[in-house]
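Researcher: Next sequence.
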Amino acid sequence: PRYDGVYVGRFHPHKGFLDLPAIVAHMKTSTRREVTVAVCGSPQFPRHLEIFRDRVREFGVEENLAMLGWRTQEELYDTIRDSKALLYPSYVDAFSITVLESLCLGVPVVAYDIDALRMIWGGRHGVFLSPVGRPEAFANLYATLEADSRLDAARDQARSHSPELLREYTWVRAVRDEREFYDRALSSGLR
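Model: Next structure:
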C-alpha cells in the first residue's frame, strides 16, 4: 500500500481530527521510520483546520500527512484500498459507515475504543481498538500490528468477510430495524 494509514472524516475534534498529528508523530517513533498518512475529508470550521495546522507544525509531521481533502467516492475508495489501515480516532459515533466501507474494501481499522465501535465492530476481524484519547497508545497498537504482520493478516480476513458484511448491513435491514423499534414503542404505549 502507498499509505501507512488513512483518515476519513470531518475535520472536527469529535472525529479525532486534532489527535491525528500526535498519532502520526508517535507512529514515526513506534515504527522507527517515516510514515505517510492520507487525510480525506473537509473542514466544517476554519478554526479546527488552523488548530490542526498548528499541531502538525508542533509535532513536525508536515511531510507525513498527505492532505487530500474531499474525494469522490471512487477516489476515496481507491485511497482507502491503498492504505495499510483506516485510522479512526473518533470520540463520537453511532454506526460508522466509514468503518464498514473500510472493512468491505479489505482494509483493517485502528480506532479508539468508544462504546459504539466496541458494540458494533469490536468482535469483527480487522478491527483493533485502542484506549480513547491516547494518541501514543493508538500509534503503539498500529506499530505492534504492523510488526507482527497482523495488519497484513487482517487485510486478508477483511477481504474474506466482505460478502458477509454486505449481506448483513443493508439499507433494507436498517429500515426494517427502525420500523420494528417504532412499532414496539407504539405498542407499549410510548407516545
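Model: The mean pLDDT is 93. Helices lie at 20-31, 46-59, 73-81, 97-104, 115-121, 135-147, 150-168, 171-187.
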